[in-house]
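Quick one:
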Amino acid sequence: MNPIALDSIAPPGVDGPREGSDQDRGDLLALLTRAGFNEAEVCRRVGIDSIYDFVSRREGRSADVVIRDALDVLIRLFMDVELLEADQVGRHLSRPEIALLQAVGLLRGSAANPRRLHAAVLLYPTEGMWIVSDLNVSPEGPAHTVLNEDAVYPAITKNTRHFLASLPDTACEDFLELCAGTGIAALRASRHAQRAWSADITERATRFARFNAWLNGRTNVLARQGDLYGAVAGQTFDRIVAHPPYMPALEQKYIFRDGGEDGEQITRGVIAGLAEHLRPGGRFYCTCMLTDRTEAPAEQRLRAMLGEQADAFDVLLVTERLFPPTEYYFRLALTGRAELNEVVRRHEVFERLGVERLVYGSIVMQRRIGGRPAFTARRQAGPRSGVAEVEWLLAWEAACASADAAMQLAGARPVVSPACRVRVGYRFEGGVRTAEDCSLTTEAPFALEARCPPWAADLIWQCDGTVPVEQLHARLRQTGAVPHALGLAEFAKLVRSLVSGGFLRLEARA
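Output:
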C-alpha cells in the first residue's frame, strides 16, 4: 500500500472512543476481520495459550522488529501501545482504514512527532468480541503514563478472567452488570439474555461500554450511568453480577480499584440493594475481596449485608486465596509497590476492624422461592471448581435445607468419590490397635478437609453405590463400628455432610 500523506494524520482529538454510523461499524469490523485480529490469531502470533496471558513488548515479550502485516500493526498499536511511523502503518492499512480508526477515536497522531501514530485506547479481542478500554501505559513510555481517576479498566486481566469464568452461560430475561467498566459481562450475557444492562458510576466507563456494544452489534445491551442501582432505579432483574472495586484503600485514588479502608465499601452497597432489585429465584454473582474478622467470618458477614431481607437469600462463598492482611502489603512493599509507612497505617486499620484474613473469591446469592430455610455455605476452590460445581452445590444445599432432608437419604446409595482421600490415626495399648481419629480430604468438586469420628473410615470403605444408607447404618451398628446409640437420623445427617463436602456421591435408587 502507498505511504500516507503527513497532512492526513489527525492530531489528538476527543478523549475516548466515538460511535459512528452503521457503515463505519461495518468497515471497522471488515478491517479487524481482514487483519485476523481475533483471539486465536493474536495468541498464535505472540505465542500464548490465552489472550489473558498477553504480555506487551515493553513488559518483556520477545517479538520480531519487522512488521509483516496488518495483524502485526494492530497488535503493536493497540495491545503493545507503541508509537509507529505513519508510513510504516500505511504499508499495511489503507488510507480509508486509518482515517476510520481516527474518526471513531481509536487512533491518534502523536503530538510530539506528527510523523508517528499511536493508539488512543487499548483494543483487543476477547470472549469472541472486540473490546476497548483505557491505555494502561503512555505510548511515550511508562515515565509519561498518567492514569486518570475514572480510567476504564482492561477486560483481559487475570481477575477479569476469573470473574467471567464464574458466570453461567444460561438464559435469563433481564441481566444487570454493576461496576461495569467496559461492560464485558453484560456484552457476553447478551448472547443468552433477552435484555442486558451495564451500569457504572463514571461517564467515561458508560461511554466505553456503549462503544463496545456498538462495535459488537449488541443492540440488546443498554449502558447506563449512575451510582450502583441509581442507574436502573425502579427496575428488577433475574440476574445481577458485579466485579466491584475491592482493594483496601487508605485514600480514594482510582474508582475502578479502591473499595474503602476495608475494601468492602462498594460490595456492601451492591449487596444491600439486592432485596429491592433481584427477583425471586434470581441469582447474584460477584468476584471481590472480603475479610474474615474476629466478629464473624466473611460468609456470615455477607448475610448481614443483606439487611432485613437476609433470610430471603441463600449465600455461597467460594474462596480462591486467603491473605494475612499486613503480610500481603508488606510483600508489596518489598517489591516496591507500596511504602513501608503505608504498611504500618494499613496494619492499624486492620487491627481496629478486627481483620484476620483478606479473602479473594466469588459470591453467589440466590433469592429463595418457597418456604424452606435459607442456607449459608463456604468452600475453597479446587483445581477443577467451576460453574458446574457451583450449580451442583447450590442445588444440593437447597435440597438439604428442609428439616427432614437427612431422612430422605435413607434409601440413597452413596459411593465414595474418586477424589476422596482417607487418613486414619491409631493408638496401640496392650497390643490392641484402636482407631483414634479420621480425616478426609478432597479437591473435587471443591478443596476440603474434614475431621470425622474414627468409624467414618468404615463407612467410606462400604460405600460402593450398591447399599442404601439405612442398610449401611444397620450393618455398621451390628459390627459395632457405629455407636449403638447413633440413630438413623443422625447417621443420615453425617452422610449428607459427606456428600456436601464431595467425599461421597449418590447413586440413583434402584
